[in-house]
Amino acid sequence: MTEQNEATQQLRQITSTSPLQAAHSWDLSVFDAQRWIKNTFAKPRATRYPIKMLRYWFMYNLIREEQIRLGRSLRVCEIGVDQGQMLRFMRDAGFTDIACWVAVDCKLQPELAESGYTRQIGANVDSPDFCLDEQYDVIIVLHLLEHLFEPEMLVHRLTAALMPDGVVLGGFPATPEWLESYWQKRIRLTALKFGHVSVFSPQRVRNMAKTCGLYLNFISGAFLLRKSGSFLENLKGWLRFNLLWGAFFPALSGEIYWSMRKSIAIKN
């Protein structure tokens, strides 16, 4: 086995959770603790398992696995924080192993002051000179890259701010590869300011990891049908069904979520 293959095999062993395992075994009880996000985004508020909240649930579980792997508090940077939903989800779920959690956004909203960020940075990530001035175990770009015309360029810049074996976590709407180019051209014709301008298939995610010198160690779809506000969102079985669909058919899921790992052992 070559040195390159040995390094790749070691990375595969770092995070062993497959999409199918995640759909079956990741805990759903953290949804019950989510008061702030449900009050803000769920309709009706009493909904137990809003599928829209899966975006935070995927990030929570991937971050939690990193903390378990490293055995220490994490240095986290979140880019595109909106009102601070991700950090609030983590705190309401009881996750406290945080050394720092830095917020980066082009518009820092007043709600962020109550979310508990270590530091807030106002920055335009589209700017050619954008960079992070510290290194992190985890960098989150959740529902951000679809708003950028050159998303791969940002991810490439972020690799310099990752600790060795650190991860970039993210997610966005999913599109089958055969439709990707057509749909991206279509939405760019009518996109509003800060709207969606990039389209992603699972294959584009894999290519992005490779071109940025990262190893894609997790990718999964999230759901077949969202049915927001329906009684179905109170059924755990409905959520598990959607997660299983996403595990088997990520390109045909409403959204995909992923983890890309940096390694000094793997070179382009």
Number of strands: 7
Mean pLDDT level: 90
Radius of gyration: 18 Å
Q: Classify the fold: give the CATH topology.
A: Rossmann fold
CATH class: Alpha Beta
Q: Helical stretch count?
A: 9
* Helical amount: 25-40%
> Secondary-structure element order, as H and E?
HHHHEHEEEHEHHEHE
Looking at the overall shape, the CATH architecture is: 3-Layer(aba) Sandwich
Terminal Cα span: 18 Å
How many structural domains does the protein architecture include? 1
Category by helix and strand content: alpha/beta
Walk across the major sheet and give the strand order.
3-2-1-4-5-7-6
Beta content: 15-25%
Outline the structure in words.
The chain is of the alpha/beta class and 268 residues long. The chain has one domain (3-73, 139-262): Rossmann fold, CATH 3.40.50. The chain has helices at 3-14, 19-25, 35-41, 54-70, 85-92, 151-158, 177-190, 202-211, 236-248, and strands spanning 74-79, 98-105, 119-122, 136-142, 162-173, 214-221, 255-262. The protein has a seven-stranded mixed sheet with strand order 3-2-1-4-5-7-6, sandwiched between helices. Helix 2 (19-25) runs antiparallel to helix 9 (236-248) and helix 4 packs across helix 5 (85-92).
